[in-house]
Design brief:
Layout lengths: L1 H24 L9 H21 L3 H21 L8 H22 L2 H21 L25
Helix pairs in contact: 2-3, 2-5, 3-4, 4-5
The chain binds heme C.
């Protein structure tokens, strides 16, 4: 009985082999994260880190991180120019260009008060776009406290 069952298993494996072989010839489509995934993976942590850096007056790092945030925006516009009929490729620069410019100026000036104001306006732009794209439930705010225990956001000198 045992031998019979083993034989049946072997036969089954032999019959399935060509099928699995064919599956390997057609690899699955490449992983394409959605806008919500990209926001969570790339935009949100950069927005958080930029905020923490500015609050602490870490201008060298804030400048670097703002550049990364800009790249995250650009990548989303490129990969997902349209999301549910919303023209993300046009909305993204239209809503973030002004506030991002003000944040960059505050970083250049090395002014924490000015940074906090500009960063608040940038955060308002995040929320304005969420409201405008039927995602008003996604509410972004300036960070208080770091979710990154292994990174030091204080300026070096
Ligand atoms: C051009 C419009 C637009 C701008 C600007 C924008 N977002 Fe989004 N965001 C969206 C859309 C649309 C979604 C929902 C995507 C989905 O549901 O798949 C989203 C989703 C998110 C999510 C996922 C929500 C969750 O809890 O899973 C986060 C986080 C997020 N955005 C953060 C930000 C931050 C931070 C900023 C600003 C620095 C920002 N977004 C700016 C359009 C935008």
């Amino acid at each position: 009985m045992k031998h019979l069952r083993f034989g049946a298993l072997c036969l089954g494996a032999m019959l399935l082999a060509p099928l699995t072989g064919r599956a390997q010839d057609n690899p699955p489509p490449p992983y394409k994260p959605g806008v919500g995934d990209l926001m969570t993976m790339t935009v949100q942590p950069r927005h958080t880190k930029l905020g923490l850096a500015g609050q602490l007056g870490n201008w060298a790092y804030a400048e670097y991180e703002q550049h990364e945030l800009q790249e995250a925006f650009d990548r989303i516009a490129r990969v997902s120019p349209k999301w549910r009929n919303y023209p993300i490729a046009e909305l993204l620069p239209a809503m973030t260009k002004g506030p991002m410019g003000a944040v960059a100026e505050a970083i250049q000036a090395g002014d924490v008060g000015r940074f906090n104001k500009a960063y608040r306006a940038l955060t308002d732009a995040c929320n304005a776009c969420h409201s405008g794209t039927n995602r008003a439930m996604v509410v972004i705010q300036p960070p208080s406290g770091t979710p990154f225990p292994d990174q030091d956001f204080r300026p070096r000198h």
